[in-house]
Amino acid sequence: MNHRPIGIFDSGVGGLTVMRKIMDRLPRESLIYLGDTARGPYGPRELGEVRLFALEIASYLESMGVKLIVIACNSATAAGLLEVQRRCRVPVIGVIEPGARGAVHATLNRRIGVIGTRATVRSRSYIRAIRALDAGARVFSRACPTLVDFVERGEVEGPEVEKAVRGYLQPLLRREIDVLILGCTHYPLLQPLIGKVAGARVTLINSAEAVAHEVDNKLRARGHSNESTASPYYRFLCTGGKEHMIRLGKMFLGPEVDKVEEVPLDDIVGRF
Amino acid sequence: MNHRPIGIFDSGVGGLTVMRKIMDRLPRESLIYLGDTARGPYGPRELGEVRLFALEIASYLESMGVKLIVIACNSATAAGLLEVQRRCRVPVIGVIEPGARGAVHATLNRRIGVIGTRATVRSRSYIRAIRALDAGARVFSRACPTLVDFVERGEVEGPEVEKAVRGYLQPLLRREIDVLILGCTHYPLLQPLIGKVAGARVTLINSAEAVAHEVDNKLRARGHSNESTASPYYRFLCTGGKEHMIRLGKMFLGPEVDKVEEVPLDDIVGRF
After folding, report:
1. Domains in chain B, please, with CATH?
2. Min Cα–Cα distance to chain B from A205, Å
3. Taking phi first (over 0 means left), then psi (-120 to 50 degrees means alpha), and beta for anything else, what does residue B18 get?
4. Which residues of B fall within a CB distance of 8 Å from A81?
5. Nearest CB to B86: which of A92, A136, A221?
6. What Å distances lie between residue A224 and A61, A67, A201, B192, CA to CA?
7. Do B176 and B111 form a contact (C-beta atoms < 8 A)?
8. Do the Cβ atoms of B135 and A106 come within 8 Å?
9. Residue-wise pLDDT tens digits, A44-99
10. Distance to chain B for A1, nearest Cα, Å
11. What is the pTM of this model?
């Protein structure tokens, strides 16, 4: 069990920011990343459809023998975490609960902002997760549908994206939040800009670190950490457009993304 | 803020097992413990009544200037955590969520047992907390109403208490649980006996350690840890029968419980 890889999936390349943190924290673990680039982004899709995609991919990863699955995508976590946990034999970790926990710990005035895709915000998952940890917290959410496109174009600074960020954050800042959850795995690339717009009084929560911590805890508690000193392997899979993933992968994760394998969508669709 | 004490309360002396772990992990923090010995145990009481008691005591501790409150009592957490979080200005941590998290991390077959008082089991709080972390986990709960009395009599071994423990655990063991949550702060004193009856294949989860970890994380994230090297102070308060608390306190916490102050119930009742 200990030598088996961890499976990580996302609608595209954003989850690579989560994989980066898992690599850094757990350098002995082999990792398989699957980006559903043929069907992503999930943000604008219906929750029911995203849930089905998540179930299919989790089943595909289980068939590859992973020991744990990370849903490194806020939309897929919001839509499908519960169903995937019910259907899988291995433990499944999403990105929402760890981020919510980080925010609840960090806030002083208990006024928490959340930005994410439409699907994530509509699901109210962050609100539920935060209230379960602190029933007295106030949560202010905002969908930022254009930010993913800016990031995917590599446009993480400049007047245009700054104007968009400012427009999205203003209503949240007016509510005097002191913590802001980056509720989309693309947003860490905008962290310098978001930090500048939000100001020094607002703490930014990047779930990726919290997720890596959670994966570590879970493997340790179960005695499933890889203790071997042999080098781990990393595999990058996508369902389409691997050149796009190699190019963005270097930006989202680093030079390790040098080879990407394409998985025919037919191998995944209808598995569930 | 950093020098202010942490407030901890329980229906009686059980929460001292939680205080012990907080003292060990955070040796620089001053702590005020309040045991509601005049009205405890809470286990057999109605949830609504326990919720009111929890609100009154939390308000009393806030008036003493604490920077954080720990509800070191499963029954009071189950009955009142959400309301207390809503009404208090300082963060409030209960014992149920940290224990649920420890169990979800440790289980391999995702079959989790919970033992506690009638009030705790009836509230279904552990089931909710576990399912929020792993929707695919199976939870089997059992109320063990006589165990608190055994512990308070100092009877933590011997044929009579062993027979009681065996009777309570048998139905859970038959469901093949591999993790058992000690869902009452009295039960850590029975841990050797419970471990013997449950067998080596069952991991016991004592929430106290998980709670201390959570308190540490919360204070650090907020920059509220006490960094001073001056000695912290410990105060032990109860609402009645302080000789009882001194005697049991040495068993539940250690020699530090040498002086207990009685708070008139009138100072607490009606605060809320």
Report:
1. 6-94+209-267 (3.40.50.1860), 96-206 (3.40.50.1860)
2. 11
3. alpha
4. 135
5. A136
6. 17, 8, 40, 26
7. yes
8. no
9. 898 899 999 999 999 999 999 999 999 999 999 999 999 999 999 999 999 999 99
10. 11
11. 0.83
